[in-house]
């Protein structure tokens, strides 16, 4: 296209805004196969775990690391963890964070797992919590590590947010 006013030549750029019918069908077919695969993964993950691998967290099932490790072996998931970081809070409490990298085939995700000494699991009863000085730092550190591993496996497989009926 010529711009007669300033003598410069410009080119019109056409950007496709939709798929062709064949492309759209191929995308839909691939998506349908992925839905079937995710549902099968869910079923197999449930078959390899038992009731002790799941806990109730706010009324919803939560896969504990014991179950996550079983599922990871089933699907060939591997991971590596960075060294943890510890954060000391002004009130004497502390928290640990692990960053992990989880892979299955060519897919890899990055996940963070944390635990705090304020968590009821470590701090004890709500009406009589333990002071931070009496909470074992290694227990909180291990809790952050297992949190990271459990999160990574369940996120990579897409098996989060299950219901008790499932």
SSE layout and pairings?
Blueprint: E1 2-3, E2 8-9, H1 21-48, E3 54-57, E4 60-63, H2 65-75, E5 78-81, E6 85-88, E7 94-104, E8 107-116, H3 120-123, H4 137-157
Notes on the structure:
- With 166 residues, the protein is of the alpha+beta class.
- Helices cover 39% and strands 25% of the residues.
- The chain contains four helices and eight strands.
- It has helices at 21-48, 65-75, 120-123, 137-157, and strands at residues 2-3, 8-9, 54-57, 60-63, 78-81, 85-88, 94-104, 107-116.
- The strands form three sheets. Strands 5, 6, 7 and 8 form a four-stranded antiparallel beta sheet that branches. A two-stranded antiparallel sheet has the order 1-2. A two-stranded antiparallel ribbon has the order 3-4.
- The longest helix has 28 residues, at 21-48.
- The chain is extended.
- The mean pLDDT is 87.
């Amino acid at each position: 296209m010529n711009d007669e006013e300033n003598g410069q030549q410009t080119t019109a750029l056409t950007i496709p805004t939709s798929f062709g019918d064949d492309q759209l069908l191929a995308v839909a077919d691939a998506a349908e196969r992925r839905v079937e695969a995710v549902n099968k993964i869910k079923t197999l993950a449930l078959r390899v775990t038992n009731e002790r691998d799941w806990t109730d967290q706010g009324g919803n099932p939560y896969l504990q690391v014991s179950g996550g490790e079983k599922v990871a072996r089933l699907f060939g998931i591997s991971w590596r963890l960075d060294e943890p970081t510890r954060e000391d809070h002004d009130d004497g409490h502390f928290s640990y964070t692990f960053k992990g990298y989880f892979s299955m085939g060519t897919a890899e995700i990055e996940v963070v797992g944390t635990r705090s000494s304020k968590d009821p699991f470590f701090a004890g009863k709500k009406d009589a919590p333990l002071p931070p000085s009496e909470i074992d730092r290694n227990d909180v550190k291990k809790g952050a590590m297992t949190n990271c591993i459990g999160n990574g496996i369940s996120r990579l497989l897409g098996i989060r947010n299950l219901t008790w009926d499932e």
